[in-house]
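Worked example (supplementary).
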Amino acid sequence: MCIFGTGDLGRSLGLRLLQSGYRVVYGSRRPHSCGPLPSGAQVMTHAAAARSASLIFICVHREHYEFLETLQSKLEGKVLVDLSNNLKKGMYPEANAVYLQRLVPQAAVVKGLNTLSAWALQNGLLAGKQVYLCGDDARAKRVVAEMATKLGLTVLDKGSLSAARELEDFPLRLFPEWRLPLCVAVGLTAFFFFYLLIRDVIYAYVENGNETSYRIMMALANKVFPIVSLVMLSLCYLPGAIAGFLQLYRGTKYSRFPNWLDRWMLCRKQMGLVALGFAFLHAIYTLVIPIRYTFRRDQMSTVVDEMKRNTSTPFDNTEAWGTDSFIALGILGFFLYVLLALTSLPSVGGSLSWREFSFIQSKLGHLTLFICTAHGYIYGWNKFLSISTYKWYTPPAFMLCLIVPSVALVLKLLLLLPCVDRTLTRIRQGWERSKPKDAVGVTNL
Amino acid sequence: MCIFGTGDLGRSLGLRLLQSGYRVVYGSRRPHSCGPLPSGAQVMTHAAAARSASLIFICVHREHYEFLETLQSKLEGKVLVDLSNNLKKGMYPEANAVYLQRLVPQAAVVKGLNTLSAWALQNGLLAGKQVYLCGDDARAKRVVAEMATKLGLTVLDKGSLSAARELEDFPLRLFPEWRLPLCVAVGLTAFFFFYLLIRDVIYAYVENGNETSYRIMMALANKVFPIVSLVMLSLCYLPGAIAGFLQLYRGTKYSRFPNWLDRWMLCRKQMGLVALGFAFLHAIYTLVIPIRYTFRRDQMSTVVDEMKRNTSTPFDNTEAWGTDSFIALGILGFFLYVLLALTSLPSVGGSLSWREFSFIQSKLGHLTLFICTAHGYIYGWNKFLSISTYKWYTPPAFMLCLIVPSVALVLKLLLLLPCVDRTLTRIRQGWERSKPKDAVGVTNL
Amino acid sequence: MCIFGTGDLGRSLGLRLLQSGYRVVYGSRRPHSCGPLPSGAQVMTHAAAARSASLIFICVHREHYEFLETLQSKLEGKVLVDLSNNLKKGMYPEANAVYLQRLVPQAAVVKGLNTLSAWALQNGLLAGKQVYLCGDDARAKRVVAEMATKLGLTVLDKGSLSAARELEDFPLRLFPEWRLPLCVAVGLTAFFFFYLLIRDVIYAYVENGNETSYRIMMALANKVFPIVSLVMLSLCYLPGAIAGFLQLYRGTKYSRFPNWLDRWMLCRKQMGLVALGFAFLHAIYTLVIPIRYTFRRDQMSTVVDEMKRNTSTPFDNTEAWGTDSFIALGILGFFLYVLLALTSLPSVGGSLSWREFSFIQSKLGHLTLFICTAHGYIYGWNKFLSISTYKWYTPPAFMLCLIVPSVALVLKLLLLLPCVDRTLTRIRQGWERSKPKDAVGVTNL
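After joint prediction of all chains, the assembly is encoded as:
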């Protein structure tokens, strides 16, 4: 094994290779003044180092690749592993590895391992980590893959060297799987915010001349948060139901889902976590209500009014039951929400068996959705039929937000009907409706 | 290596085997139309595939095992690994692996790896995962164990093939270690709920004719939750104290604990987490009080009363100290509770040294129990001696619930007495009271 | 492989070695009565066992090492691995491994693996765990390191046998990296507590004769918590800014930071988590306010006053905006705080790419600091210029606590200026100001 470059990454990689029993040689511009290297490793000039090894790691910035051209003859037939990354996307017209291959056409360039950080290497945080490889030479890729497996890494082959650009973009990715859920969240928040702004603040100002702009900061936000949270939670469970109906309709599980459904299903976890974030904000915003200036003012004026009128409204048992159920359902829903989120932590989820995981995410998840939807329905129990609710002929926001969860729950209920459920289970075990009888043979796990 | 079956599991397993440097051959009914397989693997008919390998993974549903009977001659002397699972417990009279061994008596059947999911295999989430093996042929088991270790798995041998049924039931288990704590929680909740229902709601109705059923939803629940939480927290620490006394009494650590104590000790973590769940609910229920209709009504009527009587009760300094201490202890207890739970997360707990873990779970745990118990005692500080507390001659629920924690704390205090502690430490280091002097030789780590 | 000692550790280690394909022999005092051992292992007398293996694990308490002296001849040239730990620091004048080497001078003693617990070994929780080695014989260390790597461990060589004492102290460490943050937290808490005690309680008593000692329990605590939390959060981000300026001043990233800065930077994560703990307490203390006796008393007396005066203060729109913004910023800050803490969980942080991790910890972290500081400024928006705030000529505590966060934010802002940022980025990529032009060649990753 030879490593070109004695920077942080080169040093950490060498240390790890030495520990796995490999002999490591460093190639350096200045073999005598290149700082502390892991004990057991030799340092030589680039040329000497290249001669002594068949596998060479290039831990050097792309800008300095030119010197490799001068080593052409020594690199013939060697495997070069390009670990470099760029600072930005699209900094260079061609991928680093492609450029390297062009410089040294006689060597077999493999792009890979570039998602490893010096820090992770140094601290031995490799176990089970997934790394990517690509290259045009199958033998070279096999050699690198075996080395990586020995280091405890899990290798995924991404094909030919033309995938190098994709690999080089990996370390630059910023939460790709969070993008869609966050976009949905921002879109929903903006929509409902303006909807409520019009109904709650502008309506009051136009019709009655009340200045209630202070409601924006808390009261409005505390209406937007639960709405977005509930809609996003139901968006977690809707694609599963749609997929079920699609499988039923097609009568097989082997045809691929349409692209949009695939993407949707892949970001369900992130969707749920964003929903939890909104639910968390809703919870704190609600708990904080009694400290607020407006709440205390309201209470005070109620008391003063009552005193002045010198009457007292009797205690309303139904009202007490209603609000208490409303609050209790909300708390319970939030509690289940948190439970769901805990099991999506990698270390917790990893310790569950498949059946336990699906029990939590499916059964408990739908229960959470049901409870949160009920929380929404009880909120509006005495508002659905009163005309004053429909300001400017628009329904209140909480009614709008109950549509998607209701649809998701109804679809799930349909799928749970015994006859539908039985067919679906058979399909998911590999049974195909269209398959001719005689072809039904061995189905595989 | 040979894999029969090209389903999800077969494909993922083959991919992982290829990456670990094995040569993989698939056996298929229809070698020419079996969908995408990992690159590098060959596909043949079952017979040809069986001939070319010594270790064969059976990734096929049990219902289709019959075809293996026809391959008898090709399977002679081979190692067959049965990875199959069933959908329900007790679907078949004999375990799948036993059935397979009966079909192909000349092969060495090993049951195992069936807890792996295709999903975990594909995503390289194997590092350190525990898998189980069983089989009648020791050599075959050793071959499979070595292969599994190479994949990064941790193998646990469960003995002969008669354990196959147990292994096949593993993936069907649903939180076995949570069953006891949840049963205890449900039992305690039901008991205290009815106890409080009688004392708080029915008593008020019978004696004074008050309709206070609305209290069920929140007020009652918020009494039940802290009670159950405190009792369950103390049940986490009680078995440790009992075990200590048992070791002291027996004078050795080498004799096994009675069965019930063993089971109890094994579910302490789950017990604690359930207790935290109840504490969490208690916390939110408490914080939500001021938003509730009844609370606002109460406050209002107090003010109105005061105004009408035209007097004012002076500010009570003792009352202020009392309630504030009560609340502060509750918050502190909850905070420590959450800390304890965080260290029981696999990834956090795994990064602690043994001494740190035991410091948190034992010292901090007992401190939490002490603070929460003090929280309970302060709640009742002025109620213990008033007769009106003992409705229908029953003690209030919070008194009942203080018994177990107090016992646990007293037992722990006794164990901390210097003389007792010294003996116990010696016993836990391997010293035995009954051992004759001359036999005391090397004690082992 | 030979293991001396059939205790818990010996048994678990043997089991793991057997599973990794090693042949294991136990050496025991009483080969015929040493309890259940892992199947596949042989048991012999110490002498016979020593003869049959080249690598011997000593899983015996230090007090019983003497018997090894009698085996001198059999141990010549063998590698002895000392896994022993002590119960307390400094129990013996010399380290266990040094003592062992003195007893058996002809063997090569390697100290190591002593941080492994029998429990972790038994449950296969080894993957990627870091273990330490030290010893005087390089070859012996290499043999042990390779064995450990095969078990899935990550090895760190700590040098010669004189480091053995340090290794033996590892399992006795109690949160070493938490010590500094906790000291800072305790110091800050004590200072601000007494500062507030003087200003809020003693001042009121001395000047007006008011007995307000009940404020200590909740009101005072709820002022101390946010102050300490904010200061500690800013202490997380201050060292990064200082380090940036130091690198700018020195013009290189290759010279080491002063010792105090290094130590400070290493405990930033713990500092932040302690800060979160205080923020959590602040949040609950705040939410609990409306349940408190004093709050309800205050509200009541306000109403009664208003009724008696028979006037009503008009609704103040600015006040509503101010308090609501104050609360909303607090909630948002706490929410981001929790997000930051979640990504510092090992299992969550481990699944992030380097860029994602630094995005969260740097960008989101500074945003959190900014929001929390703004929360503090808004709290005092109408208090900075009123004279009554400066009791006994001291500034209120919240002003004091805003100094450090403001400094940290200003420093960070300076570093973000385009010209400064560009230079710093170049320095962090390896550019050196002092380097002569011609020496600028290959910079390494």
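Two points are worth noting when inspecting this output. The beta strands of chain C are 2-4, 25-28, 42-45, 55-58, 79-82, 108-112, 130-135, 154-157. Residues 176-438 of chain C form one domain.
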